[in-house]
Structure formats: structure tokens, C-alpha cells
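Problem: given the chain below (363 residues), write out its structure.
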Amino acid sequence: MVQKPANKVGIVRFSALGDVALTIPVVYNACLSNPQMQFVMVTRKAFAALFVNAPQNLTVRGIDLKNEYKGLAGMYRLASELDVDTFVDLHSVMRTWMLDARLRLKGVRVSVFDKARAEKKRLVRNGANHCEKISPVTERYARAFRAAGIKVDSHFRGLYNTQASDPSLYSAIHGPKQKNELWIGVAPFAAHAGKVYPIDLIQRAVREMVAATGNAHVFLFGGGKAEKEILENIAKKATSKNVCCVAGSGIGFAGELALMSDLDVMVCMDSGNMHMAAIAGARTVSVWGATHPAAGFCPWHPEGMAADWHKTIQIHRDCRPCSVFGNKPCRFVEPGTTPPCMAAIDPLTITFAALDINKKPII
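Solution.
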């Protein structure tokens, strides 16, 4: 039986922040490649604000998974509310499998993205030095659309490629960028300790950048009370007055993305901020420890850009990655101690990479 072409397409990805951010290039490409179709993206309510400058045929629906759409009953309710003929599951976990099953009973065509679970297990077991790279998650997202008969061409060039960012969205913390200023973002945290470079060393790297340029403005990104306190303390102790704490400023994702689009470079970990900066159009220098780019979570970059559009800094060790998400303790050091894959990275390596990415003079 020949299936009818997709007309109304539902998409789901609930978490985490970086994974949802990585759906944007693919979802926007699908929308732009199929202007005759209507798309609805379902995600957590907090993440809906990531989808700025969305195509006209995309509706983003943020839902409350802790209350209104909790558990099996919540997924059944969501399935009953979705008016779609095709559904693309970009999460592929128990919760969304329930949603998939209910939609199939309604006659909806469902396509589920490949999480490469077996490949990830092999990568952790054998180490990245002895395994092939796993294809980027954005490629696997795109395959899920194509499996549903939905064309995905490469139209997306960044959130602000066709519509410039609005500096008023971050005016509560800083004015618009002036000519000849170097704007450096620093996002020193990640969801798990194994992905975090020591704060004192990242501070040293940033100090060297400021000293080398003389016109640098530094923006500190983070989330949550503990990170906010650390970053505010760094800003207060900074010798340069041009150090601004973005964490806890209240400008939200829309303001942070607008600010990221004006950065010359974002220094970050393997984190949600890395992916946000990339889709906003910033070039990144990312520091990798317990995790590894070979797992398929490198920052997105526009098609056709040089291989060094983003820079990754890492030490090649046979034990890497010790986990896909960085949530397992290093077996070589005591808890609370910096793992050797991070401790061996010289902060000046980060400084050189960040300045070189924009060809700034190093003195």
C-alpha cells in the first residue's frame, strides 16, 4: 500500500538542552525544504524559547512533563491532542515509545531516530582510538525525517543568518557590540564533573586572552544557583572591568542566544552552551575530558565551512571516553580530583586556540 505524502508532521525531543538545540538545524531544514507541510515541535516548556526565528510553517509547543503531561497518562493525552499524519521521534526513550505506540494506533506514520546505542557501548568499551566515529547526531536526526518521506536539504545557516539578533534582548547586562571589540564567551560548566575543566585554569586562559588583546569583553555563561555564585565571584575579582556574568541575569534563552550570536568565540565544555553558541553562529573552542567528539556530539556548523570552523581541545588517551555523557567517575583518581584527561591540558592551549580562531595577535 502506497502511503500518502506527509502533510502535518509532529516532532518530539524533550531533553537534554544540548540535544534539543541540535534538533534545530535539522527541524528548520525540514521546514524550509517542505514549505507545503505544517510542522509542530513538542519539547519541554523551558526549551521552547530556543526556537528563535523559526520558519513560518513551524509551531513549537512547550509542555509540562512533571504535571500536565506526566507519565503514561500524559503521553496518551498528548497523542490524542496531536493532529498529525506523520510523527518523527527524535528522542527514542520509553516515554516517547509510549507516545509512538499510541499514535500508530491512530494510523499515524511514525519514524524513530537511531540513538546508536550499540555503537556507543562499543566506543566506551574499546576507546575512541580503536573505534570508528559515530555519525553526528544531526545526521541521524535527518535520517529519521527521510525515513518518513520528508526531504531535508541544507538551508539552515544559523539562527540569525536571515534575521539579525536584537541587542536589546541582552541590554539589561551589556550594551551593543562596538567596532574593534573582541567578545569572548566563557561557559566553564557542564552537566557532569568529568566534562568540566578546572575553574582556576579556565580563568588563567581567559586572563591571558584579555592581556593579549586589550579590547576583550568576557561574558560568563552558566545556570543554576551554584554556578551563578561562582561566576559572579569571578567577575568581581577580575582585574578587567569588562567581565560580565550572564548567569542569573534573567535575559533567558532568547537573550543568551542573541548575545552568543555577537561573540567572536565561545570557550566551552562539551555542554548545552556549546551547542547553543554554535547554532547562534558563534565559533567555539570546546574542551573535552571524560567524553569524546567521536560519540557524535560535536557542535553543529554550517555545511561547507572549513573543518576548523570549531576547535576541539583534548588529550588522546586510550581510556577516553569513559562514558558517553561524562557521568561516570574517573577510575584513575580519587573522587573530587581532576581526571588526567583534563589536568594534562595547558590553559595556554585554550588561549592560543581562542585567539587563533579569529586570527588575533598573540603577544
